[in-house]
From TrEMBL:
NACHT domain span: 147-282
GO biological process per UniProt: innate immune response
GO molecular function, one term: ATP binding
Places the protein is found: Cell membrane; Cytoplasm
Annotated CARD domain residues: 1-56
Organism: Umbra pygmaea
Record InterPro entries: CARD (IPR001315), DEATH-like_dom_sf (IPR011029), LRR_dom_sf (IPR032675), NACHT_NTPase (IPR007111), NLR (IPR051261), NLRP_HD2 (IPR041267), NOD1/2_WH (IPR041075), P-loop_NTPase (IPR027417)
One Gene Ontology CC term in the entry: plasma membrane
Keywords for this protein: ATP-binding, Cell membrane, Cytoplasm, Immunity, Innate immunity, Leucine-rich repeat, Lipoprotein, Membrane, Nucleotide-binding, Palmitate, Repeat
Principal location: membrane
Protein name (database record): NOD2
KW Protease (keyword) present: no
Superkingdom of origin: Eukaryota
Length: 671
């Protein structure tokens, strides 16, 4: 580039202004080359001939001299060594019970099932199973000009662990050989950064601080974007909406808000050529982002074989592992749940409680059952005698549950997942509560800010504690449950003092508020699902010791009313059939969510009352993210349909286990 510009300037083909325009520092090498070519074309034949002759001479000179293998500068290699050490330390352990335990990722990692979003099931079968290395490979590429790969998956499907595995393999030199430097980012942590940053500050402050010349190293990164990889975990937790209206930003040295930096990186306006891998839940990613994707990969959780491998890796004693697997296989509902890695981890962790359940009927049937088992496990672990907990175990730990529940609920209302010590104290959370193991120390943020920051072990656990708080608090406002099931009104409660979580989100911007609510919707729905499950008759005797029966009954009726109202809204949207066509309902994911809530309540009467009002001949459930867990709920509810229907489940992840779960409702399916 430098030689070509000098020749064009010396021959009078370029002016000094042209020369400086091509060399702008905001351009990447490929952008400079494109700018030079466009400028030469605009100058005409003479400039084109000068450039072609220069290139020809360079080629002749290079062909006559021996080629030397290119090696990065020494400063860059030293930084790579330090960065690898830092990334390896962060990725080596899979955090489990807060401060009390950790497992090596090598000892526990099992590859989840990966699928390309744009490929048919037939093509997937022909190409074989997708492997971890294919995430950044050419397989499934739909836009070679784009640099961003999106990995989508439901909560608990293993997105963060997948990235952690990629980071660890790169740090050891076992994978991602095309990338000299890998910079990992957590969107959860970035969302708490309020001040504006430049790209250089983002890289060095939040990943690894260089010992040598920062400017020289950063210039190398700018000059060699194809050697750099950025990963962003949890785009759905950024509390910001991706749109084309986002402020443009292409200068790597200029400061900007974190969302602006991130979205311009993903679009390719900033640091074009750098490869990016982003994880998110599917509901949050709109068409505005998908336009800029190189490819989209769906993470579907464990296969049946994956469940087997995970449980056997989790238990050193093969006898225990075999008993746990036998217990899981004997309960098809539990087997379906274990396809989600986070549920499989909980079940494996709480194996003593699982094996103590007795027959399949007494073992966990719903997601709520699994999380109550985890709650019981962590409470029992703190008992000195380790005796089996009686029916009053929740009442004995009610104060801890309510304190953590208040923290969880207020955090969800403010789209906040990381909490300072001050915020814990405001909710009354004690050191003993922290030691229970439901909260873990956010190490990166704590070291960065010089004060302790905490987060729940998993976002679904935060949702579960929020649900417990809503159910167990006697004076909880009636409108809370209504707003929970309407979702859109959940974050508009004026009574909540948002200043207490001021580092999480500024609410003055209406567009930002709406974007945050869109991103928060999946967590609100998970919380509503847990509320439905906790108010099931199965858990009435457990909760009765912690909350008056009349209040529980009132909440049950209110949830049933909300579910009925939600289903009726879907039924009313069914269009009238065209002549000679069957009456059809094309269900949305929200319909499947309501069915899951009904299943969590385990009340066949509610399912029957709901389904008898549905008068259709064809139920279309395509693109609804349906896996084995959803199949269990669908079967439970759809078996009460008045008339047989044709059930369409294309473009989901039903699988063999899902088909088995659907068996109880197949008698009402004519196709």
């Amino acid at each position: 580039m430098d030689g070509a510009l000098e020749v064009l300037l010396d021959t009078g083909s370029f002016t000094s202004m042209d020369f400086d325009g091509v060399q702008l520092p905001v351009y990447t090498p490929s952008q400079k080359a494109r700018c030079l070519l466009d400028l030469v074309r605009s100058k005409g034949e003479q400039a084109a001939n000068v450039l072609l002759q220069y290139i020809k001479r360079k080629e002749e000179r290079s062909s006559s001299s021996p080629q030397e293998e290119w090696t990065p500068p020494k400063e860059c290699l030293l930084y790579q060594k330090k960065l690898r050490s830092s990334v390896s330390a962060q990725s080596y352990f899979l955090s489990t019970n807060g401060r009390t335990g950790s497992q090596s990722l090598d000892d526990i990692y099992i590859q989840g099932h990966l699928e390309l979003a744009q490929t048919s099931s037939e093509a997937q079968a022909q190409s074989g199973p997708m492997e971890l290395k294919d995430v950044l490979g050419m397989l499934g590429t739909v836009n070679q000009e784009a640099d961003t790969v999106l990995v989508c998956g439901e909560a608990g499907s293993g997105k963060s662990t997948l990235l952690q595995r990629l980071h660890l393999l790169w740090a050891r030199g076992e994978a991602l050989h095309d990338f000299l430097l890998v910079f990992p980012f957590s969107c959860r942590r970035l969302s708490s950064v309020k001040r504006e940053l430049s790209l250089k500050e983002l890289l060095f402050l939040h990943c690894c601080w260089p010992d040598g010349d920062q400017n020289q190293l950063f210039q190398f990164i700018l000059d060699h974007p194809h050697l750099i990889l950025f990963t962003f975990d949890g785009l759905d937790e950024l509390k910001h909406c991706f749109s084309d209206l986002e402020q443009g930003h292409c200068c790597p040295t200029q400061c900007a808000p974190i969302p602006t930096l991130l979205f311009n990186l993903l679009q390719g306006f900033l640091m074009k050529g750098v490869r990016k891998v982003v994880t998110s839940r599917p509901e949050v990613v709109g068409p505005g982002l998908r336009r800029y994707l190189r490819k989209e990969v769906h993470l579907k959780g464990f296969s049946t074989r994956g469940i087997d491998c995970f449980v056997r890796k989790h238990h050193c004693d093969p006898t225990v592992a075999t008993r746990v697997l036998e217990s899981i296989r004997s309960n098809t509902a539990l087997l379906g749940l274990c396809h989600i890695p986070v549920f499989c981890w909980i079940v494996s962790k709480c194996y003593k409680e699982l094996l103590g359940c007795g027959d399949a009927e007494g073992s966990p049937q719903t997601i709520t059952d699994v999380y109550l088992m985890m709650l019981q496990h962590l409470f029992q672990r703190q008992e000195t005698q380790r005796n089996p907990l009686d029916i009053g175990w929740l009442q004995e730990h009610q104060e801890t549950t309510l304190r953590l529940g208040q923290l969880a609920k207020e955090g969800l209302e403010a789209s906040c997942y990381i909490f300072t010590s001050t915020e814990l104290q405001r909710c009354g959370v004690t050191e003993d509560d922290i030691c229970m193991g439901f909260l873990s120390l956010s190490k990166d943020l704590s070291s960065l800010r010089n004060c302790l920051h905490y987060e729940f072990l998993h976002v679904t656990l935060q949702c579960f504690f929020a649900a417990l708080f809503i159910v167990l608090t006697p004076n909880m406002e009636r409108s809370t449950i209504s707003q929970l099931f309407q979702s859109k009104d959940w974050q508009q409660q004026p009574s909540f003092p948002r200043a207490c979580l001021g580092h999480c989100l500024a609410w003055q911007d209406v567009a930002l508020k709406e974007a945050a609510m869109t991103a928060e919707m999946p967590n609100i729905q998970i919380t509503a699902t847990f509320v439905s499950g906790l108010l099931s008759h199965r858990h009435h005797s457990l909760l009765l010791l912690s909350c008056p029966g009349n209040i529980l009954d009132r909440k049950v009726k209110h949830v049933v009313k909300c579910l009925s109202k939600g289903m009726q809204k879907h039924f009313k949207s069914i269009p009238q059939p065209v002549d000679e066509e069957k009456k059809s309902m094309h269900a949305m994911p929200g319909f499947v969510w309501l069915i899951k809530c009904i299943y969590e309540m385990q009340e066949s009467k509610i399912a029957k009352n709901t389904m008898t009002k549905l008068d259709i001949e064809h139920l279309k459930l395509t693109y609804c993210n349906i896996g084995p867990v959803e199949c269990t709920a669908l079967s439970y509810v759809l078996q009460h349909l008045r008339n047989p229907v044709g059930l369409q489940l294309d473009y989901n992840s039903v699988g063999d286990v899902g088909v088995e779960q659907l068996l109880p409702c197949l008698h009402v399916c004519h196709s």
